[in-house]
């Protein structure tokens, strides 16, 4: 009897974790899809090309590396 109760509890916990993971991955997929739709617009691509997003990313990389180094301590 106790084995059945623990088995049910483990099964219900795994089910909720699986459902949460599914929701999270679904949300990530929607974000990626939305960004793809936005970036497919020629005017937005033109604006991003003029601002030089690559320069911004290369300027931010040292700060991100420092942040991850501090966080791992």
User: Could you give the distance between the termini?
Assistant: 47 Å
Instruction: Summarize the amount of helix as a percent range.
Output: over 70%
Q: Count the DSSP helices.
A: 3
Number of strands: 0
Task: Please mark out the parts with pLDDT under 50 across 5 or more consecutive residues, or reply none.
Answer: none
Overall shape? flat
> What is the total number of structural domains?
1
Radius of gyration computed on alpha carbons: 22 Å
**Biggest sheet character:** none
The helix/strand class is mainly alpha
Q: What's the helix-strand series?
A: HHH
Instruction: Return the average pLDDT rounded to an integer.
Output: 79
Q: What percentage of amino acids are in beta strands?
A: under 5%
Keywords:
single chain; 0% strand; 73 residues; 3 helices; mainly alpha
């Amino acid at each position: 009897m106790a084995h059945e109760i623990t088995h049910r509890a483990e099964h219900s916990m795994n089910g909720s974790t699986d459902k949460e993971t599914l929701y999270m991955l679904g949300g990530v997929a929607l974000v990626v899809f939305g960004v793809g739709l936005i970036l497919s617009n020629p005017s937005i691509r033109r604006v991003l090309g003029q601002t030089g997003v690559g320069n911004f990313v290369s300027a931010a990389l040292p700060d991100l590396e420092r942040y991850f180094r501090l966080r791992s301590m």
